[in-house]
Write a structure and sequence with these properties.
The complex is a heterodimer of chains A (389) and B (425).
Chain A: E1 7-16, E2 19-20, H1 21-29, E3 46-47, H2 61-65, H3 69-84, H4 91-94, E4 98-102, H5 110-119, H6 126-137, H7 142-146, H8 150-159, E5 164-169, H9 171-187, E6 193-200, H10 205-213, E7 233-234, E8 236-244, H11 245-250, E9 257-265, H12 273-282, E10 293-297, H13 305-316, E11 319-322, H14 324-327, H15 334-348, E12 368-374, E13 380-386
Parallel strand pairs in A: 3-7, 4-5, 4-6, 10-11, 10-12
Antiparallel strand pairs in A: 1-2, 1-8, 1-9, 6-8, 9-13, 12-13
Helix pairs in contact in A: 1-15, 3-8, 12-13
Chain B: E1 11-20, E2 23-24, H1 26-34, E3 41-42, E4 55-56, H2 70-89, E5 101-105, H3 112-122, H4 130-137, H5 143-148, H6 153-162, E6 169-171, H7 177-190, E7 196-203, H8 208-216, E8 246-254, H9 255-260, E9 267-274, H10 289-301, E10 311-313, H11 320-334, H12 347-350, H13 357-371, E11 373-374, E12 397-398, E13 403-409, E14 415-421
Parallel strand pairs in B: 5-6, 5-7, 10-13
Antiparallel strand pairs in B: 1-2, 1-8, 1-9, 3-4, 7-8, 9-14, 11-12, 13-14
Helix pairs in contact in B: 2-6, 3-4, 7-13, 10-11
The chains are: A alpha/beta (389), B alpha+beta (425).
């Protein structure tokens, strides 16, 4: 095997209810979470993204108009990451940048849906009625907001990232695989420079309906993620520029953190399965010292998965933080966002403050962060993010 | 370990399977494809009242009960193709495939049937709200729909059925999806992460709303009569693509792994090329730069020159724009040879199988190498003088073929080209 090459994070773009960018997130994580919105989609709870000044990352109004919110959020976050890495507008790099986006999609026109669903029973010919309404009521460009691969497409158009473009689907797992594949390609010499991330718009009734069918949503008052009985969805955009070490050094890009390991699995969920799969993933990590290492968990809030994950993590003896308490649960971007938060904490040399009484304070100098992703339904992932000197 | 020109493990194909509107099974498909048969027909699955396009290449011979929806169909087509590919490769024990799954699949979302059922259950009459729907949805009667319409559900069930290893990857790069699944698998084998992989591209998303969406983008042929004549790639009177369904599956292995178990080698994945387009959401750059780069990258990755390519299995969708752009790209890469290099579009017969197309057409590319025979471009009656290509018009023919280029160019600017070879070198 050839020598495995190091993957460094040289750019972070993150937007959420805590604000935009590295500093806003560090401040936000060390303060009480902003009040989640429990009324707009009552009885469900949403962690809404702060208003974004879109012109700053998506200068053309025409581009903004051709996107729906999840794509604007993602394209905006990707722009922040490229800015942070000093790569914005640098065609010679962007033309060979490998992009992997994790995406859901399917953003719909809720009013059209309701009109059709309400009218179909009264129509003489149900199918013909649906055809007629959709032909006249659907905006032609809405399709482009529904296709999962069109976040990547918009990033290519707005930011000029064209080396390669892949879109993974599959809820939390797609975010894990996106980072894992980008890391593996760099380690093996198949890639030198990658843009990896995802965006999720939780502020949509159609996603509420989907998760309501599975009874996976928390209701009532917002709680810390460990105390939830279901998901409080959150709108999140998170992108990382991941770069091979020598490549970063050659262009003088300061690294924020190192991605040392990314592993994933796919367990058939049954009682005890989460602990078993986490245990096997954890074995791939070096020994972590509780004085200098911590866990940032992507727990969703869905029972009993979240409780099983927490019980396992508590046995590691490391301080644990559930980012969902602040950000809400954003599915595809949760893992890339948590890697960003890990890198931000490592830059500050300390873990952010506990938010739930179950979370222990940590005083030591932070050197390593294990980032977990236990999908609310399937798919498990683990990464080790380390400080660089 | 046998290496390629760049010192990487050689990646070979040891099994393939396919289902299209022409039928199930690679042999049946190949017989009809080389006979110039069309699988395009009038849509009977749903009412087409009020629609401009009333034809498609739906796969109607696969019974699906009780409810017909895109993920259900996509899963079923994928199973048929993968069963054939795994049986041919004779790899692993039943339900224990020794490698990861890369699944190209259309994005899924709750469809009208489900939305309607929930609306009825809500009892709301006049002013239906999403509150009504979510309240009814939480009854627990619809749990199965929650799982079915997760983006990862098709891959999850396929991974369970075939016993693939690790977390399955579901992916979408629009019309390049099937090719991307092969690309990811080849990369995983080249870096030593896997010795074998199962690649599937599948699409069962021909339903009224999908058809309407493409129709609103003016992408579809509206030449409904006769259905078999609608898809006419590279013809002057081409007027859009024909939506279609199907699946293609390939078992890929490192040559070392395949030889160690005595597997029959069906072909070699020699090169991968990619270049995204930053021009427009549905249109490609008029100068063809991204697709030219994509094709060139694939040929270079294979360690070949354009002169080594004997045949092109093009994207060839039959839209005015794609076919023109693809010609410009072929002409730029192949120069004078572009006039004589055979280029024939499977889509003239099976339509555009969307997320499956890259995988389905890879199977046909491999069969072209195996049989040394070029399937035709049918419906080629009015040549487009601005596209002077040898499209293998209307009738299949024999040819000596050592290396095939297969193009997949997607909405959203994702372009992938693959180079297949007949035997390891």
């Amino acid at each position: 095997m050839p020598e495995r090459r190091e993957s460094l994070i040289t750019g972070i773009g993150i937007v959420s209810c805590l604000g935009e960018g590295i500093e806003a997130h560090w401040q936000g994580l060390n303060a009480a979470p902003p009040a989640a919105d429990a009324t707009s989609f009552a009885p469900y709870i949403v962690h809404r993204v702060v208003p974004l000044e879109l012109d700053r990352q998506i200068p053309k109004k025409g581009d903004q108009r051709q996107m729906e919110p999840w794509q604007r959020i993602g394209t905006y976050a990707a722009g922040l990451a490229l800015d942070g890495a000093g790569l914005k507008g640098k065609t010679e790099f962007l033309a060979r940048m490998d992009m992997i986006v994790a995406a859901g999609g399917g953003e719909r026109d809720a009013q059209v849906d309701l009109n059709v669903a309400a009218g179909v029973d009264k129509a003489a010919k149900a199918e013909a009625f649906v055809n007629e309404r959709l032909m006249s009521d659907l905006r032609p460009t809405l399709f482009l907001a529904q296709l999962s691969n069109l976040l990547a497409g918009n990033i290519s158009i707005v930011h000029g990232v064209t080396g390669s473009s892949r879109t993974f689907m599959g809820e939390e797992s797609s975010g894990v695989e996106a980072v894992r594949v980008a890391h593996a390609r760099i380690a093996a010499g198949q890639s030198e420079l990658a843009l990896v991330g995802a965006a999720y718009n939780a502020e949509r009734w159609e996603v509420m309906l989907h998760f309501a069918l599975g009874r996976r949503l928390a209701r009532g008052a917002p709680k810390a993620v460990w105390q939830r009985a279901g998901m409080e969805l959150g709108t999140i955009g998170a992108f990382l520029v991941i770069e091979e070490k020598k490549h970063a050094r050659a262009r003088g890009a300061p690294p924020l953190a190192r991605i040392t390991m990314v592993a994933s699995d796919h367990a058939k969920r049954a009682p005890g399965a989460v602990a078993t799969v986490l245990e096997s993933l954890w074995r791939k990590l070096p020994k972590l010292d509780p004085a200098h290492a911590a866990v940032i968990s992507g727990a969703s809030g869905v029972a009993p998965t979240t409780q099983e994950e927490r019980a396992f993590l508590d046995r590691t003896g490391l301080a644990v933080r559930g980012s969902g308490t602040h950000l809400g649960h954003g599915l595809e971007p949760q893992f890339p966002a948590n890697i960003a938060l890990a890198a931000i904490a490592l830059r500050h040399g300390k873990l952010f403050a506990p938010e739930d009484p179950s979370e222990e304070p940590m005083e030591g100098a932070l050197r390593q962060v294990a980032v977990t992703s236990i999908g609310h339904w399937r798919g498990e992932g683990l990464a080790l993010i380390e400080a660089v000197d | 370990m046998p290496k390629d020109h760049a010192g990487r493990p050689l990646v070979v194909v040891t099994g393939y399977g396919v289902v299209t509107s022409l039928g199930a099974g690679a042999q049946d498909n190949w017989r009809k494809l080389t006979a110039g048969e069309s699988g395009i027909h009038a849509i009977t699955r749903f009412a087409t009242d009020g629609l401009k396009t009333r034809i498609a290449g739906t796969v109607d011979f696969v019974p699906i009960a009780p409810s017909l929806n895109a993920p259900e169909l996509s899963q079923r087509f994928a199973e048929i193709a993968a069963e054939e590919a795994i049986a041919q490769a004779r790899i692993g024990a039943r339900g224990d495939f020794p490698g990861p799954l890369f699944l190209g699949v259309a994005p899924v979302e709750i469809e009208w049937q489900q939305r309607h059922e929930v609306a009825v259950a809500s009892g709301a009459n006049e002013a239906l709200s999403y509150n009504d729907l979510t309240r009814a949805g939480e009854s627990g009667h619809f749990e199965a729909y929650y799982e079915r319409f997760l983006f990862g559900s098709v891959a999850d069930r396929l991974a369970e059925k075939f016993g693939t290893k690790g977390a399955p990857i579901s992916l979408s790069t629009a019309c390049a999806t099937g090719a991307t699944s092969i690309q990811l698998a080849v990369e995983a084998i080249r870096r030593g992460e896997a010795a074998a992989a199962l690649c599937i591209g599948t699409d069962g998303s021909v339903n009224a709303e999908s058809l309407i969406r493409f129709s609103l983008l003016s992408a579809l042929s509206a030449a409904n009569e006769p259905p078999s004549g609608a898809s006419k790639p590279f013809s002057k009177n081409r007027d859009g693509f024909v939506m279609a369904e199907g699946a293609g599956a390939l078992v890929l292995e490192s040559l070392e792994h395949a030889q160690a178990r005595g597997a029959k080698i069906l072909g070699v994945v020699e090169g991968l090329g990619e270049m995204a387009d930053s021009f427009h959401r549905t249109r490609s750059a008029p100068d063809g730069k991204p697709t030219i780069g994509c094709i060139s990258n694939a040929i270079r990755d294979a360690g070949l020159t354009p002169d080594d390519i004997d045949y092109i299995n093009p994207h060839g969708t039959s839209t005015p724009e794609n076919d023109k752009n693809e010609y410009i790209s072929i002409a730029a890469v192949f120069g004078e040879r572009a006039k004589s290099l055979p280029v024939s579009s499977n889509k003239s017969m099976i339509g555009h199988t969307l997320s499956a197309a890259g995988a389905v057409e890879s199977v046909f590319s491999l069969m072209t190498l195996e049989h040394q025979r070029l399937p035709p471009t049918i419906n080629y009656n009015v040549p487009d003088p601005s596209i002077p290509l040898d499209v293998v018009p209307n009738v299949a023919r024999d040819a000596r073929v050592a290396h095939v280029l297969s193009n997949s160019f997607g909405f959203g600017g994702q372009n992938v080209s693959l180079v297949f070879g007949r035997e390891p070198r």
